[in-house]
Write a structure and sequence with these properties.
The protein is α+β, with helices and mostly antiparallel strands. The protein has 12 helices and 35 strands. It is 18% helix and 38% strand. The protein is globular. The mean pLDDT is 94.
């Protein structure tokens, strides 16, 4: 295995190791001033309790901790620290935190804050994350700020708005006979369904979104918030640790055809793509998604660039066409059609979306001016009568869920996702894979059997619907809403990509796009990365493998636990190929004997700079998969 973080994450910066806090059956991980993975008897009760300060673009401040004191005993633990956040203009917010946990199931997190100057923020206070696995659709008891208590359920399908408002407490069942009450004091809280953004949680947060933001915390005005968790019932024994057993993988029933794989091409990247044409052919994507945005100066020259690439690599094509809506829709779209004709650009489909729909409209906000989507789609159909027409959102599922498009006028629906909207740590990014089946299931519930495409979806954020711009990340850090992410260049992205495909293809997609070909969202290395400049990043092998499976019959895969993701396809020739990914930072043993039984299988494992191969007759029944390794079996 490789222990080099540079090969795994594309950066030598390593995340801080969490401090495991324990009090009898209660445990939590203390990370950068907040609590993660709060468990009781080994079962996750809350995914996080975090005190969050966000800027006017919804970026999250990284507070500087001081005076940290941690005390642990068998039946209790406590943490105390002070911290501060400094805004770009120099204003500062200081706060003091106290965390206490007890073996009888009580946990409290108290913060007192004091702005040294007027401090502008979009949110300042606690966020509480409930997990989704095993909880989605389950009963909860919600206590409101007026004292009323309501028996209800967490949403199963993704709620576009807030399922619960004016909250004081929420209680759910942890396991039979064990319940957890989370009580919030110091402000008004509400819950949003974070699966909208592919977060694997329901988030209860401070300050209703219907109130104005950004807002100012007045200098010298103290504020205090407290979160109290109380777990009652059941055995007080701590569950035994798990994870040593191999992950067993068994093929199951067959399903729909696996989707075409696309890569997005930006006009400015065409020359680089042509320069690496042999690698594009080796990659083998079935489709090219050609980006076109007149609000960013794209015109005839951009379409001509796309035409040069298509002449050299004649794949199926879709024009991802942003509609400026600055004048008449017919004039704008017929003008694009005329430029497509003049450029000699061959298209198979066009997807259109108004430019303003790339910006989110949060609850309580005013919808921006935009022509009716029926009119946009009708104008596109008139301008491109012989092409398949797609629509939806060029941003994320959140926007598609909140602004339901008239799908009857479309030949396919499309949207993207991004895993670093709210958090960018390694665990949160990988946990986002849990939310994807809920996204595809909710899309199918809204739009039925309409042909469905996803992407481009990448770890780095290509656009920010929630603020003025994506965050610059020239330093290669783990930053939410960043336009670059170092992990895209490491093995981490390859594992995330296989995990992503494994979660979404059961929805019967017709196309999946998980990268560009070149550039910061692409498959080829830039200078200073683990791979040599211009050569394939690890994610290249993952996307290449998915492209090779396109058109195969999907084979459901049963897994004994979720440390590994798996995707399998059955070829027209009768051969089964499976792609596996270790989506954890630990070594994971994998039992593949059921996959290779009776077949002359080959196995290739990418776990660092080189690939390891096992030929027929030498394939082991068990694989040792290092952190974020991917493997092809078949």
């Amino acid at each position: 295995m490789t222990a080099d973080p540079f090969l795994l994450y594309g950066t030598r910066a390593v995340e801080a190791e969490p401090v495991r806090l324990r009090a009898g059956p209660l445990s939590a991980d203390f990370v950068n001033g907040n609590l993660r993975s709060i468990r009781h008897g080994g079962i996750e009760v809350l995914r996080a309790i975090a005190y969050i300060v966000r800027d006017r673009d919804w970026g999250t401040y990284e507070p500087v901790l001081a005076d940290l004191e941690i005390e642990q005993a068998d039946d209790r633990f406590s943490v105390r620290y002070s911290a501060s956040c400094e805004a770009p203009g120099g204003s500062r917010l200081g706060f003091r935190a106290t965390i206490e946990g007890h073996a009888d199931g009580r946990l409290s997190f108290d913060v007192g804050a004091l702005p040294e100057n007027d401090f502008e923020t979009n949110r300042c206070g606690f966020c509480i994350l409930h997990p989704i696995a095993g909880l989605a659709g389950s009963p909860v008891k919600v206590e409101h700020t007026d004292g009323t208590i309501v028996d209800t359920k967490l949403p199963l399908l993704i709620d576009p708005w807030q399922p619960f408002k004016d909250m004081r407490a929420i209680t759910h069942n942890v396991r039979p006979g064990v319940s957890a009450e989370c009580r919030m004091e110091g402000d008004v809280f509400e819950m949003e369904d974070q699966r909208n953004w592919s977060d694997a949680s329901y988030k209860t947060y401070v300050r209703p979104l219907a109130l104005p933001w950004p807002y100012v915390l007045p200098a010298g005005q103290p504020m205090r918030q407290t979160i109290s968790l109380r777990i009652t019932g059941g055995s007080k024994e701590t569950a035994a640790a798990t994870g040593a057993e191999p992950v067993r993988i068994e093929p199951g029933e067959t399903g729909a055809k696996l989707p075409d794989v696309g890569v997005v091409i930006y006009p400015e990247d065409v020359e680089a793509a042509l320069d690496k044409l042999p690698l594009l052919k080796r990659l083998g994507p079935q489709q090219l998604l050609l980006h076109y945005d007149p609000t960013r100066g794209h015109g005839l020259d951009a379409l001509q660039a796309h035409a040069r690439l298509i002449a050299a690599y004649p794949a199926a094509t879709t024009l991802e066409c942003v509609v400026a809506c600055a004048g008449g829709l017919d004039a704008e779209l017929s003008g694009v059609a005329e430029m497509v004709r003049r450029a000699g650009l061959r298209l198979d489909a066009i997807a259109v979306s108004p430019s303003v729909d790339r910006q989110s409209t949060p609850p309580g906000s005013t919808w921006p001016d935009c022509p009716p989507l029926e009119d946009v789609y009708a104008a596109a159909r008139r301008a491109f009568p012989d092409l398949r027409l797609g629509g939806g959102m060029f941003s994320y599922f959140t926007e598609l869920n909140r602004k339901r498009v008239p799908a009857g006028a479309l030949d396919f629906i499309t949207h993207c996702t991004c895993p670093i909207v709210h958090a960018a740590d390694d665990l949160s990014v990988m946990q986002s894979l849990e939310a994807l089946p809920f996204i595809t299931g909710s899309t199918r519930a809204i739009y039925g059997a309409k042909p469905y495409r996803i992407g481009p979806s990448t770890i780095p954020m290509r656009q920010n619907p929630y603020g003025g711009a994506t965050k610059d990340n020239s330093g290669g850090q783990r930053i939410a809403m960043a336009n670059r992410d170092p992990r895209h260049a490491g093995l981490f992205a390859a594992a995330w990509t296989i995990g992503y495909a494994a979660r979404v293809v059961p929805a019967g997609l017709e196309m999946l796009t998980l990268s560009s070909f070149t550039g910061s969202f692409g498959l080829l290395a830039a200078a200073g990365e683990p791979a040599e400049e211009g050569t394939p990043r690890p994610i290249f092998h993952a996307v290449q493998g998915l492209a090779a499976l396109a058109g195969h019959t999907h084979v459901a895969v049963r897994l004994s636990d979720d440390r590994v993701a798996a995707l399998a396809g059955h070829s027209p020739a009768g051969l089964t190929t499976a792609w596996l990914a270790n989506i954890t930072s630990d070594d994971v043993p994998v039992d593949i004997s059921a996959l290779v039984r009776g077949a002359p299988a080959q196995v290739t494992i990418w776990d660092g700079a080189e690939a390891r191969r096992f030929g027929p007759g030498t394939v082991p029944g068990h694989l040792a998969m290092p952190a974020y390794a991917i493997a092809r079996v078949g």
